[in-house]
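User: I'm putting together a small comparison set for a docking exercise, and I want a reference complex before I start. The sequence is below, and the ligand is glutathione. Could you produce the 3D structure with the ligand included, as structure tokens?
Assistant: Of course. I'll restate your input first, then give the structure tokens for the complex.
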Amino acid sequence: MKLYDGGRAPNPRRVRVFLAEKGISLPIEPVDLGALQQKSPAYAAVNPLQRVPALVLDDGTVLTESIAICRYFEEVQPDPPLFGRGALEKARIEMWNRRLELHFLFPVSHVFRNTHPAMKEMEVPQVPEWAEANKPRIADFIAFLDNELNDRPFVAGDSYTVADITGLVAVDFMKPAKLPVPDELTNLRRWHAAVSARPSARA
Ligand SMILES: N[C@@H](CCC(=O)N[C@@H](CS)C(=O)NCC(=O)O)C(=O)O
């Protein structure tokens, strides 16, 4: 088994944090996105979509999509349960993870990819107007999230879940995207400090 990783890029980091929370370690093969190694014929043979992460199982099966990879490991090693247990809890965690992906991580990624000079060869064409269009959506969503975090310690409830991982990675990715986290979002800041203090956040 081998995990193709992408260093500081947010989606591979989601998988690394997830694995750290599970206490799972496996061989990691770095893919140098800065050198566009994801577009090399060797890596394109692994993932024709030329994106990381990708997990290759011992029988040669390739899994891509961060959450699909996380779900695989959740089934292989259910503890701690990061996608929840029982119908309602699983649905609530899925809801929050999707909300954070669609309304937070992906928009932050659009801002970064469409404005940062280092992304010129990956995001073709870069559309700065699309970055601008996403900025107020991000601001609205983090204000909403801040309000939600008023009455619970974690995004989806009382326990740390995959939704917190998506949120942690999204907040951290705001920095290179040059997006501010307003001081007044005190619940968001408290939650971010707590999830950042977990050893898994260093993954
Ligand atoms: N939906 C995919 C997204 C994968 C993705 O976009 N990965 C980025 C790094 S965060 C990438 O490989 N970018 C390379 C490129 O755009 O050429 C997932 O969740 O894993």
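The CA atoms of residues 75 and 81 lie 9 Å apart. The mean pLDDT is 97.
User: Thanks, that's exactly what I needed.
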